[in-house]
UniProtKB/TrEMBL annotation:
This is Twin-arginine translocation pathway signal. Keywords: Signal. The keyword DNA-binding does not apply. Belongs to the UPF0065 (bug) family. PANTHER family: BLR1237 PROTEIN, TRICARBOXYLATE-BINDING PROTEIN. The keyword Oxidoreductase does not apply. Residues 1-25 form the signal peptide. InterPro entries: BUG, Bug_dom1.
Amino acid sequence: MNHSFLKIAIALMLAFCGAATYAQSAYPNRPVKVIIPFPPGGTLDAVGRQLAQKLSDQLGQPFVVENRPGGNGTIGGAVVAQAQADGYTLLFNASTFTTAPMTMKSVPYGVVKDFTPIALVAKAPLSIAINKNLPITDVKSLLAHAKANPGKMTFAVGSIGSAGHLSTELLKRAGGIDYTVVPYKGTAPAFQDLIGGQIDGFIDPILGSLQYHKNGLLRVVATTGDKRTPNLPDVPTVSETLPGYEFYSWYGLWGPAKLSADITQKLNVETNKALESDLRDKLMQQGLVLTPGTPEDFAKFQNADMVRSQKIITDGNIRLE
């Protein structure tokens, strides 16, 4: 009797293990939800949707983007933190994801403890866009104008603690200048006021300002990467005037904590594959620097970036009220 019971128990255990192994190897076998915690229409949304479509094509299941804006990105982040760690709810977000908890009183998750880094997708150099009616054509004239008008220049910030915000604060210190930072609820109204002359400058990912610059509605005077970007080859980097100045926004893919190594690895491999496809040229034309690597590479990058960001936030006393 005991022997028969033991055989049945072993058979059930083997069947269960086999089903679990099959479920992982067959991943995904139903649609995957990709949470983007900001509204449609921005750079983050554009990159995330292109990646989701490519993953759908490669893996044969829909990767469905769901925008869950609000709370400086924390509402959408909380959805993923609380989801089952089965690979069917993922987060696509920008570097604001790691800096929001540094600027807010309370966030419903921990970036390190509640998420699994899957892949660093791309770094996005920023552009310094200036109202076209100002006598500013490069970084040198920007610094001269700011020094001649201490505290009078105004720079927009699309969201508190964003890469654009940190870059704006860093430029103050690197250039030894002062200006007034004006928070906006999103990049679209900031660009409208920059074009209209209600604001003097705005630092944001290149994709946002590119068309306005080409149409002559505003003037991009510099970019923040370590080299000039292919889509703005005539625009210098900030570091050509202020050596060592370099700043990026960046985009990544995360799952909930305790996502299995098998699924994490599969998603990482497929994301890197997508970055080697025709998507590569599309993203590079948008000014992005592609960053394929392992989940471990991403975790290391994220932690180093958080240390750097915390210093800028502390030094600039950046808080979201």
